[in-house]
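Propose amino acids for all 275 sites.
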């Protein structure tokens, strides 16, 4: 019986950047080093690490924004940096992103409805009435109102605008969404609400996530598996989040000690009672 092909597979992915500053001219900075990861359908992979660990660079590589110097990125079996441009375009709609800064992720001169409609216009070819109806349905799906389509970004709170960005990301019913610090700029209560929304959408729409964050507590509420990065390398992995207190690498322990209580994380209710 043949093995099931991963939805996403990274094979020995490496990337360097040239350092800046007066004393760093010509210095090569290792962003990622021979990183290999895989993600199956309907899974959430948590990718954590301290600032500068390379996790966001890896996210941009997955999205096709930063080309790796070595290695392959296979999405639905297609090499995103290969020569078959038609095949790459065909799978590109199934790969979307939600960034940390929702305000810089949207055009301030466009209404929420116009922002959400952009990918629909690019890929779906809907009529005007069909687009209006779909945008309204998407807004309601993320906990907003259909009439919110007429509002501009400055008329939303941060949490509400991040819901708009999520609506745009799911508009094409993608198979994978990269969440790059998607809740990091929100307060704790709003974070919990957005994480609950993402969990429900993942179940309803059968999506996969790569959840990039420095916040291990947030990742623990959503992820199935975990990869910890330091200096561009994956230094520790967990195949189940039930083993989160079995982490041993110093970076993992620092992240764990910074955010998690002594008691295990409860997926249903966040931190266990007494925290």
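Proposal:
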């Amino acid at each position: 019986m043949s093995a099931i092909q991963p939805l996403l597979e990274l094979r020995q992915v490496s990337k360097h950047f040239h350092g800046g500053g007066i004393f760093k001219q010509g210095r090569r900075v290792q962003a990622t080093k021979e990183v290999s990861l895989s993600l199956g359908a309907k899974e959430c992979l948590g990718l954590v690490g301290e600032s500068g660990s390379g996790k966001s660079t890896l996210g941009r590589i997955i999205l096709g924004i930063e080309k790796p110097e070595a290695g392959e990125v296979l999405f639905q079996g297609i090499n995103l940096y290969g020569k078959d441009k038609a095949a790459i375009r065909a799978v590109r709609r199934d790969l979307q992103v939600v960034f940390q800064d929702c305000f810089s992720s949207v055009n301030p001169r466009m209404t929420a409805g116009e922002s959400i409609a952009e990918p629909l216009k690019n890929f779906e070819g809907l009529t005007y009435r069909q687009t209006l109806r779909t945008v309204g349905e998407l807004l309601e799906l993320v906990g907003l109102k259909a009439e919110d389509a007429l509002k501009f970004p400055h008329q939303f709170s941060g949490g509400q605008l991040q819901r708009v960005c999520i609506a745009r990301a799911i508009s094409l019913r993608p198979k994978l969404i990269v969440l790059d610090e998607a809740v990091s700029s929100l307060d704790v209560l709003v974070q919990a609400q957005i994480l609950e929304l993402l969990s429900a959408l993942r179940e309803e729409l059968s999506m996969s996530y790569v959840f990039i964050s420095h916040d291990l507590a947030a990742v623990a509420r959503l992820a199935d598996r975990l990869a910890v990065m330091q200096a561009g390398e994956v230094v520790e992995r967990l195949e189940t989040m039930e083993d989160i207190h079995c982490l041993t690498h110093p970076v993992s322990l620092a992240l764990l000690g910074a955010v998690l209580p002594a008691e295990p994380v409860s997926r249903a209710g966040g931190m266990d009672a007494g925290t």
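The chain has eight helices and twelve strands. The longest strand covers residues 28-39.
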